[in-house]
Each structure stands twice: as structure tokens, then as C-alpha cells.
Amino acid sequence: MAIITRQQDPQLQPQPSLLPFKYSHRVLLKTLLDRQDGGRAFAGQRVVVGGWVKTSKEVQKPLPPPAPAASVPHEERFIDREKKGDKDISCVEMLQSRIPLIRSIWEVFGGGGYGRSHAPSRKRIESAPPKPATPPPPQLSTAYLLITDGSCVASLQVVVESSVAQPSNLLPTGTCILVEGQIERPAKEGKHVIELKADKVLHIGTVDVDKYPLSKKRVPLEMLRDFPQFRPRTTTVATVMRIRNALSFATHSFFNGQGFLDVQIPIITTTDCEGFGKLFQVTGLEQKADKQKLSTIHETDGVSLDIVKAAAKEKSNIVETLKRTESNREALAAAVQDLRKTNELVSQLEAIEKKNLKSLSSKDEAVDASRDLFLTVSGRLHLESYACALGNVYSFGPRFQADKTDSAKHASEMWMVEVEMAFSQLRDAMNCASDYFNHLIMYVLETCHEDMKFIAKRIDNACFTRLQQTASGFPEMLSYNEVIDILRKVEDKKFETNFKSGVALTAEHLSYLVDTIYKKPVMIYDYPKEAKPFYCRLNDNGRTVAAFDLVVPKVGTIISGSQNEERINIIHSRINELVLPREKYEWYLDLHRNGTAKNSGFTLRFDLMVLFITGLTNVRDVIPFPRSYGKANN
Amino acid sequence: MAIITRQQDPQLQPQPSLLPFKYSHRVLLKTLLDRQDGGRAFAGQRVVVGGWVKTSKEVQKPLPPPAPAASVPHEERFIDREKKGDKDISCVEMLQSRIPLIRSIWEVFGGGGYGRSHAPSRKRIESAPPKPATPPPPQLSTAYLLITDGSCVASLQVVVESSVAQPSNLLPTGTCILVEGQIERPAKEGKHVIELKADKVLHIGTVDVDKYPLSKKRVPLEMLRDFPQFRPRTTTVATVMRIRNALSFATHSFFNGQGFLDVQIPIITTTDCEGFGKLFQVTGLEQKADKQKLSTIHETDGVSLDIVKAAAKEKSNIVETLKRTESNREALAAAVQDLRKTNELVSQLEAIEKKNLKSLSSKDEAVDASRDLFLTVSGRLHLESYACALGNVYSFGPRFQADKTDSAKHASEMWMVEVEMAFSQLRDAMNCASDYFNHLIMYVLETCHEDMKFIAKRIDNACFTRLQQTASGFPEMLSYNEVIDILRKVEDKKFETNFKSGVALTAEHLSYLVDTIYKKPVMIYDYPKEAKPFYCRLNDNGRTVAAFDLVVPKVGTIISGSQNEERINIIHSRINELVLPREKYEWYLDLHRNGTAKNSGFTLRFDLMVLFITGLTNVRDVIPFPRSYGKANN
């Protein structure tokens, strides 16, 4: 930072303009402080600033020297009133400064002490004994408030005399103030190169000190999670949210620059794109009513669809377990056969039910839609249909998984960036994913320098090197089989899960690969088909699919992508293999029956990208209002 | 458009670079066609292009002139083969061109005819009778395909000889092709100034002509709604989606430029921000299990919470009806009193139930969260808590209303831009909303010129004037009371709804105001408190709140905003007045108990903005996958 010497009087130089924020007439702290000179050039200007108190202290008025001789040492924070003249010093203050005796009495009754930190002062003031005979002179003091307004890491020192506002209202952490005053250079330049001498207090939002969760210093992140409405007032969460914002804009600027179109993908859907996790179900009020009708019909029918459905679910679980254990191929085949039959029965019953409902309800579509509506897991299939018309498209929105887990990398509601490109293949998607990933890193390094300096100071001191190396290098490229070979040769570590071909790599495997072996991002491609969703394109060997993952240190899989299967007969057989409800994918099958193209795309887990950039370890700390199993209280 | 004369031979001038799209090696049609010269400068270059057939025709090979004398007139679409030399003309073609007799025989058997449109040709080829004795010469023809790839309005003519690919596979509308070839200037410059002479077909995605919904020409928009996966292949929907994309990017660039932070607001919530509409309920699988437990408890308790809740709901409806009719103030007061009692009973029962559940379940929070989770209606309260820390924030995401309606302006899932600014007041929000609204219009006019030309041609021929006038002017500013006075004086129109103070204006009133009286956007402010949500700031008169709406011609209310109530006691009393479940707003009340500020903000209904720009009338035509009551089939 360039140091401006005292000789360079800002009053003599043309002052930079200090524009207030257009829609609130206050000056953002960023405008004031986020400069090479820390704001020195603005000294002497009048401004309105607003913000929340981070820390504060109250300093009692010291005695000015009885004579002009400067024999009494000034307290560090003492503001030299002489410069401003005495006109705003009240009579009482005059009295106080002249008669040391009165001052001593005050101190005995608890009014004294310099440099105390905030909050306790209020109680002490309250406990000062009343003096009915001679009314007690008011406690004259100066409040030093360090305020932040969220626009930058830096905070501003605001100095408020007790003659301007009651310090007890201002001092508690979290207090909101809007003040007007003059920017000054402090007598002694310490931590702050400028401060605001407030002479008007326009607004105070007080704090209930006993209940306000941020009253304590340094509340741990885990504890802050219970107060999502307050935690952006901490420097750490505010910094993370500014970086998150930069990543969001970098996403839009990258894709807009490349000519991609932003397409909003629906949240309410009938399509389970992945087929692996649990889904959130959605019901509106009408839909409940329909369900009641449904159950009436079941009873009169003598056949319960619900029971058959439950059986299908159970059988599906058995198939899943058999697939995982791979212990008995014959048992698996039999179970799959059994499941298919049950599913057929479900379809038949559903058809009967639908027919019955048609006679009951005049609004057929309403009934159709009332069943099996979910919150979307992934928008890639919907997005692909837009790619098959508009070429290159992307989407940025929330995606949902209802799985009950406490994983630090999972929340029920996470934001994803999904990309789909027509006429492109696996390598194209890998290149695009890699370029986008690097763009995000470079954008943050270029635009969030102060925020990243804070991250380096508090969370990850190697963040600059780590991110610069990542963005300037290339990820290690390995096929799934190569990864398996590499991990099989590892001798210094015993993995909990054994390797079996066809099985997804676990977090433990991936972590060893990127954290211990390569110490940099690894791109894994050509996965066994069992480990990936049905729409990934089958390779010529019939065993692997054209899918890839970008795995990064500490965080894990941050991007997953694939070339999509364009051959209708293979999509059919994959849907059958995975025993998916084919009628739900008819619209997607139609897409590939009519003007199918070779498409590829990928998904970036946006919240995990924020983790990767900041070095934090739990997604709950980087999502504004995190939702997970049993956690949604606003 | 500047016309380049023949003298300006593009071959002699330095050719502009023709970069393929980075991630698919094909050249986007936008790169090729979206230029002043329509792509003439690229003549002679080899490219790969991909797209979908919009229209096509097959032209049978005509006889070239028997002698060099140009006495035989060329058919309009005839390509002068002589220029390319005869090397790619097959022996059969040679034969055909020399012997008129053979040609006549073909024509008799259905092989002839120029300029027919697509599709039927296939059947005719199939019905050509086999000639086993002398094998029939293949039907030589040229396919002219007009293809579009979604990157721009313009389409490219691709010329494919039957010797390169079977025309029957290429001709149907919707067919996907990826072809390589040379850009040429057509012999006669008609509608197209360049065309692609394809000599390699790299991919064909055929179409099931009988089932493909876009086979017919000009399918109406209503019909297209049933095929959201295909409709962006129509020029209208593609154009709308490109404009929608521009509006999305303009949103991010506006707020980013002003220093706002993008904050992602949760979809799953317990908070009903508006309190007016119906909500979608969300359940995960665990949550269902909890509900079963719940009902068990009800029965053993001997008091059914569900029944009491139903009663509360019914009473709430009565209150609403009484409020609307305003017929009997005493009856309303009594009903409100009654409702409060019922709500108290609900609270008591819920407390009992919660206690019981605690003993049943070890995971208390899970149970808490399992009840009353909804899809968010508005993120403004959540956003305000971030504004109360970061200053100026915005959010762009989907919002939900489960109301059963066929309104052309409503869908269950609509995207909203929400904005919240700390330390700002009603006028600030109105100014910001107005600037943002104008920015959106100007951005589209500046960046989507070709798209808007198409809109002017097909949908709204006054769109340019309309949008330019809107963006360069200011909205009419009227208080709610002024609007009522103006509408009361209207004599030439009888409104269905009468005016009563305290009642929201209906679509009919608003339409008359902006479409008939002012013919431009109107900003209405200071609404009666009954017409707005609880968080709008009460004005000093105690009757109106600091809320506003921006109402635009044809579309209606496109932006709603307010200054938010910062005084905790007034928020309390507003929540009581509206009989809202206070425990759900505790987190929001906490926000204003601790460091409250004067905040203001607004919501832009993004989908309605696309309607306003394009002149379309139904939101279902501008939302990629619209969801409404009974409509969600993918």
C-alpha cells in the first residue's frame, strides 16, 4: 500500500469525488476504504455512512491540560478538541475540565476508566447513584465504533461524542447506525488511517444484548449456522458471500461471453434425472384432495395400488442391494425379473385408476399432475432438449436431494450450474468444464483481492498459491481404469472399500488420489456404466460410458459431465437395465426420436466451488440459508 | 443493410476469420449470418455447420442445355454445375442428361416435378415400380434445406446432392444435420445471399414424421405448449428465449454494476412472505413417517389437531370473505375474535404434540422441520436479513404459488428478481426499480436487434416505438387515492368491481388506467395497508403503507415494492391484525429486534417482463417449461 506522507496535504490536491450509493444517499464503505490510500484523500469531506457495530469502546473524557503546556500526556484515543474550538463543549464539560475534584468523585462512583470495551458501560451508568440535591453532571465520554456495512472487508472507525448520542445505545455489537459527519485523519495514525467524526445520528437500531447471538466475540461457524439471518454480519460469512457473488457473476459472464443462452429449468418435475437419490415430493392443496379420491377408488376396487407400490419399492431395494454386493448374479437376475412384473402390475393398476378418475373428475390433467411431482435433482435432461434447438445453453438454479445425511459436502438444496452443448462430444465438455473452472478462479483472484487476503489470513494461508497454480495448470487426466490401477498399487494406505469394477469410487478413494498422490485436480473419464445415469453415452466396448468427473483437493467431485446417448435403441435398453419407469421418460425419448444430435454437458456444484475457493469445509457455511435433513427453520 | 456489389470480389479482399464455436468445431450460424453483409465475405470458405431443418424442398435434376447456347431457361434453384466441373457427376447422371427419353419415363413413374415441398417425395420414391430387367437409374436430385441452429433468427440454406445423402432422410422438418462443405454465393441472389454446398454429411438425426408435432407449418403457440421439449425449434419460441436470456444477463449486469450482491434464497421454507396465496407443500420420505406418528398421537390424545386446524382454516376463510364484502364490521370483529381463539387452540395442541413427539423421537429437529415446509412464494424477508448485513442485495430465482387458475399472467412456478437495500426508503426503491426496468429495455434494444425485428414482424409491429418511448420517459406517478379518484370519474366504462377504500385494485381497473387513460407505465404508491403484506411500512396516517406497484400496458403489475417496517412493535401489531402464525416469523422479528435499519426493496416478475418486451400475452409461451395447475408432464 502506498504511503502518503503528511506533506501531501489532501486539502491542496484535487479531491476525488465521493459518490454516495445512488439509492440510499449514504456512502458505501467500499467507496471510502477500498483504495490504495485507505481513504486519506477524502479527509475533510462530509458524508453519511451506515453500518453495524463490530466492536466498540467508550472512553471517558480526560482532563485537558490545565495550562497550555503539554505536560499531561494525551490518551491514545483522545481527540484534540482545541482544533475544533470549544463551541460545542457544554458548560458541564467546561466545569468538569476545570475542577479535578468533581472528576475524582465521578471516578469513585464508577464513571471513570479509559479504554474499557463495550457493553458493561451501560450497566455502570445505570448503577450510578442518583444525587437529588445537586443533579449529577452527565457522564461525558466518546464512543469509538468500528462499523462494517458489508460492502468490503475493511471497517470504519466512527467517533461519536456522548453529547451527540447516548453511548449505551451505540456500543453493543450488532447495533445499526446511520450517521453524518466529517472524515478526519486521526491524530495518531494507528490501525485506521481515517475515521468519521459523527455530529448527527440519523438512525439507531438497538440490540437486545442478552439474546443477540453475535454479542460474543468470535462465535464459531457451527454455532452461527443456527442464525442464518444474522451471520452475514460477521466478517467471515460476509467475505464468503462476496466471493460467492463474484462466482455467480463470473458464471454468467463466462457463458454469456461464449454465446450460451441462460435457460431456466423447472423445479417441479416428474423426471428423476439421476435415479440414485431420494426425492422431495410436492403437493398443492388440490392435489391432496385428489389423493383422497384415489384412496377411495382403491378400496372400492378391491386392489390396493399403494400396497403393490410398496412391494415394488421393496423389491427395488432388494435389486439395489444385490447390485451392490454382486454376490449372486442369478439372484439378481431373478429379482430384476420379479421387479419388472411388479412394475407391470403397478402400471396396470395405475391405468385402471386413471380411467376411474376420469369418470370422477372433469379435469383429467389436474389428476395426472397431482401424482409424483418432485423437486428436481438435475436439469440436464430438460436442458438438453433446449440445446437440441438453441445449441449452447446453461442454467443456474437450486437442485434438491432428500437424502438423510450429515455430510459436510451435502445439503438438501444446492445450487448447480448445468451446461449442455449440441453437436459436441465428451472431450468438448471436458474442455469447456476445465475452461469454466479456471475462469471462476481467475475472476475471483482478479476482482476479490481484499476478500481473498482475509481468507488467507483467517482460513487458508496458502489460498493464493493454491488457486494460482490450479488455474494456470491443467488437471491430471486419467481414465477410471487407470485410477483403479493406481489405487490398487497403493501400499501405505488400507481403504475401507475394496475396488470392484463397475462401482463408483468412494470419497476415500478420491481423496487419496487428489490430496495424497497428485495434490491437484484430477479429471476421471470413461466410467463403468453402472456408476453413471442412464443418459450417459455407451462407449464401443459396451461396458463404459462417456462420462467424466473433475475431482479437486479437499472438496471432492466438483464437476460431473458426460456425452449424452443419442441412439434411441441404446437409451431404451439402458432404461430397461436400470428398471426405470419408462413412461416418465417418454418426453425425453421423443427428443431423441426426432432430430437427435450428439450432445454433451456437465454440472458444476456451485456451493462446493465456494468451498474450494475459500478453503472452508462445510457447505452449510457458504449457503445463505442452508437446508438439510431436519434443518429448515425460516 | 449495406449492399456489396459484384465488383467487390470477396476473394480479393482479406477474408474475415470464421472461428468455429470453441467446444464443438462447428461454426454457429450467428457467426456466419448475423453480419451487415449477410455472410457474403465468407464465400469460398469451408465450414462445418449443424442445425435443424425448418423447411426444405427436393428438386429433381434438370437437363442441362444440350449445347453451350443458353437457350433452355434455368430453373430458379438450379445450380450451375459447369462451374464445378463434371467430375462429381456420376455416369448415370451423364446418361440422364443426354437422353430425354429416359427422363420422360421417370416422370411418368412419379420421379419428376420441381420445387415440391418436402415429405411427400419420400413416399413417391418408395412407390416407384421396380424394373428388374434394366435396373432403374437412381433418382438424382438436390435437397435444399433451410436450417436453423438457434444462435440467431436467420437460417442458412444448405444444398445437398442426392449423391451425398439420401434426400428422404434429410427433408422432414425437425431433422438434425451436421454437414461440412463450402460457402457459396447462389447463382441468383434471392432470399439468401449465401448458401452451403455440403459435400459431407457427418450426422443425421431423423424424424418420425407422423408423430413429430412440428411437422405441420405454423403450429399455434397454444398447441406448442404441450411440447416444451420441441418448441424452441420454432423461430418464435427461439427468439423469445434469446430475449429472455438477454434480460437475464441484463439483470446480473445491472446489479453487479451497482455493487449489489447476488444472494441465493432458499426454495424450501417455513415462511409465507405474502400471506395471500396458496402454497405448495414439500415432503421428503422421513417426513411422511413423522406424519404417521403425528396422526397416531392425535388419536390417543382424544383431540384431533387436524380437525381444529380445519376449523381454523374455515374461520380464516370467513374472515377473508367478511373483509372483502365489508358488509358488517361487527360480524368481522366477532369472526376475528373467534379465529384468534381457534388459533390459540391450534398452538396449544401443537405444543402438546411436539412434547409427545419429543418423547417418541430422538431427533427433535427432524420432527420440527417435517411440518409445514413450503415452496417459497417470495424471498424478500430472507433477502432483507442479508441486506441488514451486506447492504444491497438481489436474488434471481423461482417462486411458487399453488393457486388454481388459468390466468394468462400466472404460472405455478415463476422467476422473480428480488432486490433489497439497507438504509433506503420508499422513493429509493421506486427509483431503483424504474432504473432497472429501463435498463432491461435498453439492453434488449441494443443487443437483440435482429430478434426484435422478428418480434416486430410477427407479434407486435409497434414494439420498437413502444419500448423506446417507455425507456426514455418516466412512469406516471400516482398515489392509490389519486388512482381511485381518477377511476371514479370514468364515465365511459362500467367496472365489474366497485371501489372501496382498502381494497386492492383489480386487473380491470389497472388495465383501464394504463391501457386506456395513460397509455404508458404508471407507478402507484401508498396503498391501503389491507392490500399489502404485513412487512410494508405503515405511513404516519396509520391507514396506508409505503408500498408501490409499477403497472405496464397489456401486462399489468410487473414490479411490486415497498419500504419495509423497521419498528418492532408495529410489525407485531400488523402480524396480529392479519392473524398470521407469529411463531413462524420469530426469526424475522429477531432481525428487527437487533440492529434494525430502514430497508426497501422490490420484486420484478421476470416472466411478465418477457411478455412486456415481446408483446406476447401468455406467460406459458415465455417460460421454458411452464408449470400450472394440472400441467407438469416432464
TrEMBL record, chains A, B:
<keyword id="KW-0067">ATP-binding</keyword>
<dbReference type="InterPro" id="IPR045864">
    <property type="entry name" value="aa-tRNA-synth_II/BPL/LPL"/>
</dbReference>
<dbReference type="GO" id="GO:0005739">
    <property type="term" value="C:mitochondrion"/>
</dbReference>
<keyword id="KW-0547">Nucleotide-binding</keyword>
<dbReference type="GO" id="GO:0006421">
    <property type="term" value="P:asparaginyl-tRNA aminoacylation"/>
</dbReference>
<keyword id="KW-0648">Protein biosynthesis</keyword>
<dbReference type="Pfam" id="PF00152">
    <property type="entry name" value="tRNA-synt_2"/>
</dbReference>
<dbReference type="InterPro" id="IPR004364">
    <property type="entry name" value="Aa-tRNA-synt_II"/>
</dbReference>
<dbReference type="GO" id="GO:0004816">
    <property type="term" value="F:asparagine-tRNA ligase activity"/>
</dbReference>
<keyword id="KW-0436">Ligase</keyword>
<keyword id="KW-0030">Aminoacyl-tRNA synthetase</keyword>
<dbReference type="GO" id="GO:0005524">
    <property type="term" value="F:ATP binding"/>
</dbReference>
<protein>
    <submittedName>
        <fullName>Asparagine--tRNA ligase, cytoplasmic</fullName>
    </submittedName>
</protein>
<feature type="region of interest" description="Disordered">
    <location>
        <begin position="117"/>
        <end position="138"/>
    </location>
</feature>
<feature type="domain" description="Aminoacyl-tRNA synthetase class II (D/K/N)">
    <location>
        <begin position="372"/>
        <end position="627"/>
    </location>
</feature>
<feature type="compositionally biased region" description="Pro residues">
    <location>
        <begin position="129"/>
        <end position="138"/>
    </location>
</feature>
